[in-house]
Amino acid sequence: MTTRRLRAQETRQAEPGRAARRWRLGALLATVAILAIGAGVGLAGTWVAVERGAGFGAVRVGPWTAFPRNGSLEADPYSRAIVAKSGGLPLGLGEGLSFTASRDSEGRPLIGSCTYRVVGRVPQTRFWTLTLETPGGALVPNPARRYGFTSAEIVRDGRGVFTVTVAPDVQPGNWLPVREGRFELVMRLYDTPLSGTSTVIDPGRMPQILQDRCR
Amino acid sequence: MNPLARIAFVATAGLMLAGIVHLGSVLAIPRLTKPNADDRLAPLVPLHTMTLMPRAEPGSAGLPFADPAAAIAVCRFDLSARPVRVEATPGGAFMSFAFYTPTGGVFYALTDRSATRGKLEVVLVTQAQLEELQANDPEDEPVSELRLVAPGRTGFVTVRTLAMEPGLLEDAEARLRTARCGDAGG
Lengths: 215, 186
Known about the structure:
The structure holds two protein chains of two kinds. By secondary structure, chain A is α+β, with helices and mostly antiparallel strands. Chain A folds into two domains: about 1-50; about 60-215, Domain of unknown function DUF1214, C-terminal domain (Jelly Rolls, Sandwich). Chain A has helices at about 1-50, 75-85, and strands at about 60, 65, 95-100, 115-120, 125-135, 150, 160-165, 175, 185-190, 210-215. In chain A, the strands form two sheets. In chain A, strands 1-2-3-9-5-6 form a six-stranded antiparallel sheet, with no helix packed on it. In chain A, strands 8-7-4-10 form a four-stranded mixed sheet, with no helix packed on it. In chain A, a hairpin with a 2-residue loop joins strand 1 (about 60) and strand 2. The longest helix of chain A is centred in the N-terminal third of the chain and has 50 residues, at about 1-50. Chain A is elongated, with a radius of gyration of 29 Å. By secondary structure, chain B is α+β, with helices and mostly antiparallel strands. Chain B has two domains: about 1-30; about 35-185, Immunoglobulin-like (Sandwich). Helix content of chain B is about 30%, strand content about 25%. Chain B is built from four helices and nine strands; from the N terminus they run H-H-E-E-E-E-E-E-H-E-E-H-E. Chain B has a five-stranded antiparallel sheet, covered by helices on one side. The longest helix of chain B is centred in the first third of the chain and has 30 residues, at about 5-30. Chains A and B meet through helix 1, helix 2, strand 5 and strand 9 of A and helix 1, strand 4, strand 5 and strand 8 of B.
């Protein structure tokens, strides 16, 4: 009789102990899961944002994108992180504005096995340059040592429209050589009244990038 | 708690933490990225010395995303001891100054349009140095120099000028060789 009662007491004491232990294990697992989700998803989000170059304050004109605020301390944290990672030095707002295109006017990625025509006008600016770069910001070696054009070198027609041909093989006129792989076109406007103030630019004011044919 | 509620709780808390981690890491990248812009320049550019950067060519040791039509000189500054004066002579061509924090943020830029008597000149100061300079300014004559308060003690200045044809790059570099950077003196 006495022994049985004692046993019953023991079981009653052990029950809450086991429940508490199970509860603690559950809480530990939940904490580990929360930390793992937090660190994993949070850092993955940062990596994607920085790698994709998705900063705020972008000014898009046709295929061209500029980040005017990168040239000032008003740049948003994403843009600042992207600039810090790239190692490049953005143009100051008072110096000029640089537009980058990694796709043609129809949204297809720019690739070195295709021929493109860059046709049109340039917004009001004192000088401009058009440069062909790899996505990492390096110039593409070529025997002609032609890496870009400046506003002084370009031949325009009577209406002020110019054409630059980006192609892997020799072209008549303004030829910008390219090699296999993806590339980007960078249009830098130096001493332009566009800097900072205006964020809306008529697409007709920037050149189009038209794909001709591919190998 | 039933298992479904527990999963929902863990997912919600995890995603909230993910948001905090994401924002925190984005904000921290400029400070944590090593080498930062200033560290990258340090081996090429001694402190308070206007240094011509290597030409932008394939495989060059210069800066990435550089314009091959631009010549660029850099001066790294440290205002701990005294103000720093940056000056250059554009000689009628395009020339610009851009002032950067060590992580590559631009805090001021100007072009040769702001030149006075054919010279571009800026005196970089800290807030304390500006107040000291102002206390010593003569009262009867206006201050003619442009004083720029830097957001931090260190950073760097770039001087850019353009070569509108590849053959003019040497002239552009010669213009940059006249640029000076150093002790602002009296």
